[in-house]
Task: inverse folding
């Protein structure tokens, strides 16, 4: 368990140093410095287009897939720069996994969805797979709702269940960091609160970075909040501090809804 | 249309309501102190009657604050405005209650040598606590942390006078046990004034929190 930084409460999991990102000649991230603590939930907030998703994607090099992207600076995961050319990107994305805004289950059974990752990484043993599936679904707080329909299509689940299934699918490959881009924006309030509860539980064993447009959600779930504006990191601090006494007027204006 | 302009209006309204409550409370304290110094039971009765108005207004403003929290989810400075509003309200309401306490005691205090001996202290104490309330609310209106902090230092002076009255009354009880009832009323009154100063200090602390976001203990 120690690979996830457990028992080392204030350990930095990820260090972002002087990060710049360009989409061709448009600079979407400007000189971002940020440290992400192990076993903490870091919320990224800011107006639409400020670069939250772009930043999140830099943490597991998902931006590599986009044409014309240029990245400068460094991102150290456990001290190693993930932008070094010799880095195995597939392994990086296993360690740093992503949950998206809309649940995206594969068109196959609940079981096969969760088994997908472990199988790709070479696991064939049925007993071991069964164990991983059950454990992951438990961790994602979905087991009791799907245990009697494991072999039915995942597409028949509700939106909230699908999102938790996607989280289970991610957990099955034993990642260290979970990136979540507005994971509950497509869900109803109860499903949203379930996801929030789940995130709280998961933080014991994972480092979590979450993008959200819902200010109350950021305030409720996160330990640390980062406010972005026009590609710049404007303010970064404990969530309690950001939401009760932000230092920067722009942060104040944004979180109190007086932006623009 | 600016975002949150109706919310902004509601926040301003709450603050104006608080000043209205503060006016009533300051008036109550003023009347209570006047009745005490002049030993005027009719004036004291007036203070007791007026408390209902204070309680009603208090409840009305508090409901408005709760509604804003429930419906608007205030954040950052807005949150501090609402929370500070509730704290100041509570302090004002307590001060109002102590005005009533003073008025009730006043109705039981008789003209006496003892009373004359305490009068100078009580007058001085009353003057300071009224100044504290005034400055506390002034600091609130003007968002002046410095002023709030300075006001709070007056609390020490109040405590000092209280200790002196306390000693005087204890000595008096020891010398003349029959004076215990009258001495007790005078002791109550000075204790109420001392508590009012504490509540005024709480207002000062709330104002500092509102402005800086820092919690400071000033008494
Ligand atoms: N593939 C792309 N090619 C070119 N520009 C892009 C691309 N993706 C994003 N951008 C631009 O980069 C900026 C940041 O976009 P990003 O998606 O990171 O913002 P965001 O903060 O996640 O916004 P939202 O809250 O709307 O999701 C925007 O100006 C956007 O137009
Ligand atoms: Mg986005």
Result:
């Amino acid at each position: 368990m120690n690979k996830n930084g457990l028992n080392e409460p204030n350990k930095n999991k990820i260090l972002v140093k002087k990060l710049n990102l360009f989409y061709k000649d448009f600079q979407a991230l400007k000189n971002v410095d940020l440290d992400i603590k192990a076993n903490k939930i870091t919320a990224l907030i800011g107006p639409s287009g400020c670069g939250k998703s772009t930043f999140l994607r830099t943490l597991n090099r998902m931006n590599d897939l986009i044409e014309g992207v240029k990245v400068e600076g460094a991102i150290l995961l456990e001290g190693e720069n993930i932008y070094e050319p010799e880095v195995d990107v597939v392994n990086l994305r296993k360690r740093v996994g992503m949950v998206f805004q809309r649940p995206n289950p594969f068109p196959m059974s609940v079981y096969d969805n969760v088994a997908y990752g472990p199988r790709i990484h070479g696991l064939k043993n049925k007993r071991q797979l069964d164990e991983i599936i059950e454990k992951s679904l438990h961790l994602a707080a979905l087991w009791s709702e799907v245990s009697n329909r494991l072999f039915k299509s995942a597409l028949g689940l509700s939106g909230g269940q699908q999102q938790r299934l996607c989280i289970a699918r991610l957990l099955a490959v034993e990642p260290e960091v979970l990136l979540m881009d507005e994971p509950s924006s497509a869900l109803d309030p109860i499903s949203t609160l379930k996801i929030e509860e789940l995130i709280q539980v998961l933080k014991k064993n994972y480092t979590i970075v979450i993008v959200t447009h819902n200010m109350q959600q950021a305030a409720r779930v996160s330990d640390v909040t980062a406010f972005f504006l026009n590609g710049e990191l404007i303010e970064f601090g404990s969530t309690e501090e950001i939401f009760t006494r932000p230092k920067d007027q722009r942060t104040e204006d944004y979180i109190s809804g007086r932006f623009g | 249309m600016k975002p949150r302009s109706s919310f902004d209006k509601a926040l301003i309204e709450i603050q104006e309501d608080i000043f209205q409550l503060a006016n009533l409370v300051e008036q109550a304290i003023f009347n209570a102190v006047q009745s005490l110094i002049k030993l005027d039971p009719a004036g004291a009765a007036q203070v007791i009657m007026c408390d209902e108005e204070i309680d009603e207004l208090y409840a009305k403003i508090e409901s408005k604050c709760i509604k804003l929290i429930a419906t608007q989810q205030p954040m950052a400075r807005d949150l501090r405005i609402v929370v500070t509003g509730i704290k100041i309200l509570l302090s004002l309401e307590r001060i109002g209650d102590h005005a009533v306490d003073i008025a009730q005691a006043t109705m039981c205090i008789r003209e006496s040598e003892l009373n004359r001996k305490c009068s100078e202290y009580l007058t001085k104490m009353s003057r300071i606590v009224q100044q504290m309330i005034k400055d506390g609310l002034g600091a609130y209106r003007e968002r002046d942390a410095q002023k709030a902090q300075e006001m709070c230092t007056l609390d020490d002076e109040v405590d000092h006078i209280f200790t002196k009255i306390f000693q005087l009354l204890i000595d008096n009880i020891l010398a003349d046990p029959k004076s215990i009832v009258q001495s007790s009323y005078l002791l109550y009154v000075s204790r109420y004034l001392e508590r009012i100063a504490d509540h005024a200090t709480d207002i000062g602390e709330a104002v500092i929190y509102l402005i800086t976001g820092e919690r400071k203990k000033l008494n």
About this structure: Chain B touches chain A at residues 2-4, 7, 73-80, 212-214 (CB under 8 Å). The domain at 3-212 of chain B is CATH 1.20.58.220 (Methane Monooxygenase Hydroxylase; Chain G, domain 1). Chain B has a mean pLDDT of 94.
